């Protein structure tokens, strides 16, 4: 049975990195008989320019009936002057919400070949292997908000049910990994965080008694991520904290361009996207790093196609390309030569053992 994959290339470098991820998926699909079928749809600025809405109805309908969705990136200065309710980002947030994608998995692993690309001392980077589980459909991103000329507010709201389900997803993941979970909040200031900590404590204690549980305040967590990154296994946190901490965590690996993500809900199609943005400053120049996108394709194979072996082959091929010294600009050391987005994609395909 063919599996429809909706590709939302989006804006800026989105189409360039998505093209390499799709190329890898096409190759894998042919070699492993996965029967993936790609269908392109509009999201973000590209959709605003074409049909006047960042999340057209046809796009949402296509996504709902897909096996999985692959997204490049959305946004850019071109749309800074459009009304806030139709900004490109609203399309992405609307899609996450409409598909119920409450758990955003962001794996952060240091790659020994890239130690020089991280601003951190190398001895801190040994053995860093973290999955940040970011709550994705609640919190301040989706609360009540309003603004006038002189005042504005955004509210952070969470229900027990929203906290329970993402804590369960994170705990299941931790149980299948090294058995450690760190929950991050701002318990000393926010009511949503007090509800978060109480709920997390109860879910872990009653349903996952074997896990080693730690709670950290988000400001301290931002510091601990740099001072002892190798101690963490699974981290779980609310939407905004997770957004900020994962940009920070990407520098453990060496570049924003390296990190993939999987957004999962209750059994429907998953959404896979690199954590980086649309990088308008380098768009259209074949200069973006497609690693985050290609590794997101690996997550798509694993979580939406049950193709673990193919996923691992893609991850191993990316590792091999990096080990062989293939570098895009963002991760090239001084004096090292860099390849373009397309050439990096080609290098990964050449190293696929499938
Ligand atoms: C991300 C991005 C998005 C977010 C933006 C583009 C809305 O920064 O996926 O991390 O804030 O969630
Ligand atoms: Mn972000």
Q: In one word, what is the shape?
A: globular
Question: CATH topology of the largest domain, which one?
Answer: Isopropylmalate Dehydrogenase
Secondary structure class reads: alpha/beta
- Helical amount among residues, as a percent range? 40-55%
Integer tally of domains? 2
- Bound ligands, named by name, code or SMILES: 3-isopropylmalic acid, manganese (II) ion
Give the amount of beta strand, in percent.
15-25%
The number of distinct helices, counting runs of at least 4 residues, comes to 12
CATH class designation of the largest domain? Alpha Beta
How would you portray this structure in words?
This protein has helices at residues 14-32, 45-51, 57-64, 88-98, 122-125, 160-176, 191-207, 218-227, 239-253, 291-305, 308-323, 341-350; strands spanning 3-10, 36-40, 68-73, 103-109, 129-135, 145-147, 152-154, 180-185, 212-217, 234-237, 262-264, 270-272. The mean pLDDT is 97. Helix 1 (14-32) packs across helix 10 (291-305). The relative contact order is 0.17. It has twelve helices and twelve strands. The strands form two sheets. A ten-stranded mixed beta sheet has the order 2-1-3-12-11-4-5-10-8-9, with helices on both faces. A two-stranded antiparallel ribbon has the order 6-7.
What can be said about this structure in brief?
The protein has 354 residues and is an alpha/beta fold.
Topology, please?
Blueprint: E1 3-10, H1 14-32, E2 36-40, H2 45-51, H3 57-64, E3 68-73, H4 88-98, E4 103-109, H5 122-125, E5 129-135, E6 145-147, E7 152-154, H6 160-176, E8 180-185, H7 191-207, E9 212-217, H8 218-227, E10 234-237, H9 239-253, E11 262-264, E12 270-272, H10 291-305, H11 308-323, H12 341-350
Parallel strand pairs: 1-2, 1-3, 3-12, 5-10, 8-9, 8-10
Antiparallel strand pairs: 4-5, 4-11, 6-7, 11-12
Helix pairs in contact: 1-10, 1-12, 6-7, 8-9, 10-11, 11-12
Bound molecules: 3-isopropylmalic acid and manganese (II) ion.
3-isopropylmalic acid is lined by residues 74-75, 89, 92-93, 243, 275, 277.
């Amino acid at each position: 049975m063919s599996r429809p994959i909706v590709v939302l290339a989006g804006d800026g470098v989105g189409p360039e990195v998505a093209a390499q991820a799709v190329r890898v998926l096409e190759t894998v699909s042919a070699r492993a008989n996965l029967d993936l079928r790609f269908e392109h749809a509009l999201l973000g600025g590209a959709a605003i320019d074409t049909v006047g809405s960042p999340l057209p109805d046809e796009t949402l309908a296509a996504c709902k009936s897909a096996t999985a969705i692959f997204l490049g990136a959305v946004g850019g200065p071109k749309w800074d002057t459009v009304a806030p309710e139709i900004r490109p980002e609203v399309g992405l947030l609307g899609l996450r919400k409409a598909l119920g994608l409450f758990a955003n998995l962001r794996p952060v692993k240091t790659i020994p070949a890239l130690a020089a690309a991280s601003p951190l001392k190398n001895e801190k980077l040994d053995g860093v292997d973290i999955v940040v589980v970011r709550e994705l459909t609640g919190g301040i991103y989706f609360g009540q908000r309003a603004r006038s000329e002189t005042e504005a507010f955004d509210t952070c709201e969470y229900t027990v049910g929203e906290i329970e389900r993402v804590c369960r997803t994170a705990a299941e993941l931790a149980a299948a990994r090294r058995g450690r979970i760190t929950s991050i909040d701002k318990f000393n200031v926010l009511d949503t965080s007090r509800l978060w900590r109480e709920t997390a404590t109860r879910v872990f204690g009653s349903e996952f008694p074997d896990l080693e549980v730690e709670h950290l305040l988000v400001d301290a967590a931002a510091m601990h991520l740099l001072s002892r990154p190798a101690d963490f296994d699974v981290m779980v946190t609310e939407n905004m904290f997770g957004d900020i901490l994962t940009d920070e965590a990407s520098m453990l690996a060496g570049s924003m361009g390296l990190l993939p993500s999987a957004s999962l809900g209750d059994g429907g199609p998953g959404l896979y996207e690199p954590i980086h943005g649309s990088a308008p400053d380098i768009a259209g120049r074949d200069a973006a790093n497609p690693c985050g996108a290609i590794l997101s394709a690996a997550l798509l194979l694993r979580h939406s196609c049950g193709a673990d072996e193919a996923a691992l082959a893609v991850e191993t091929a990316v590792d091999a390309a990096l080990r062989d010294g293939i570098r895009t600009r963002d991760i090239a050391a001084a004096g090292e030569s860099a390849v373009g987005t397309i050439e990096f994609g080609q290098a990964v395909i050449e190293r696929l053992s499938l």
